[in-house]
Amino acid sequence: MIAPACPHEHRTKHGRDRKGNQRWKCSDCGATFTSSEDRPLGDMRTPLDRAALVLNLLLEGMAIRAVSRITGMKPDTICDLILEVGERCDAFLARAVRGVRCNAVELDELWDFIGCKARVAQAKGYDDGRGDSWTWLAIDADSKMILSHAVGLRDEDTGVRFLRRLNGAVS
Fold first, then answer.
1. Diameter of the chain by CA atoms?
2. In angstroms, what CA-CA distances link 83 with 42, 63, 88, 157?
3. Cα within 13 Å of Cα(19), Cβ side
4. Distances (CA, A) of 140 to 77, 99, 156, 158, 168
5. Which of 89, 126, 147, 150 falls 20 to 30 Å from 136 in CA-CA distance?
6. Separation of alpha carbons 127 and 113, rounded Å
7. CA–CA distance from 8 to each of 4, 17, 26, 161, 166 (Å)?
């Protein structure tokens, strides 16, 4: 956990560096050093218990603004937390779901919109990602495990990305 710059055991907390890592100071020789602990939330300095509470409230169906009022965390920070955890979950699923044996795979897609529907976004000239969004899912028919997913437009690029990931997930 700690990569000390001296062999002594007596150390005290000595603030944080600019990235939020805990700094330590040796009580015997005065040397300072930084902890090399793993940061599961990347550059976020949110404590893990508070982040877990926020994610739990969101999973229970609360809105971002409601979670912000209850926890005191800013909505932008909550959105950053969602993105960070989502990217790590996506990377974990890409690593962990490999070579699954299944008899039948169910493919499905879900339509939704971001900000406004596509025709409104086109009429108003929005080109910042607002409009239609499709979630592509591949589910093992027996175990109901999600084998592959992709979010994007209903186009060839998203379809190819989705099927490549599915190809790596099944044997």
1. 70
2. 11, 16, 9, 22
3. 10
4. 35, 12, 23, 20, 14
5. 126
6. 14
7. 8, 22, 7, 53, 52
Question: Taking the CB of residue 143, how many other CB atoms lie within 10 A of it?
Answer: 10
At 53, list the tokens: 């509470």
Measured distance CA(152)–CA(110) in Å, rounded: 11
Cα 33–Cα 35–Cα 37 angle in degrees, nearest 5: 165
- Given a cut of 50, the residues of the chain with pLDDT beneath it are 1-4
Q: Classify the C-alpha dihedral 56-60-61-62 as positive or negative.
A: negative
Strand order in the sheet with 11-16: 11-16, 22-26, 32-34
Cβ neighbours, 10 Å, residue 134? 17
For residue 38, the model assigns a pLDDT of: 66
What pLDDT is recorded for position 2?
A: 44
Which residues are paired to 33 by β-bridges?
A: 24
Mention every residue, 6+ apart, whose C-beta is less than 8 A from residue 56: none
Q: Global pTM?
A: 0.68
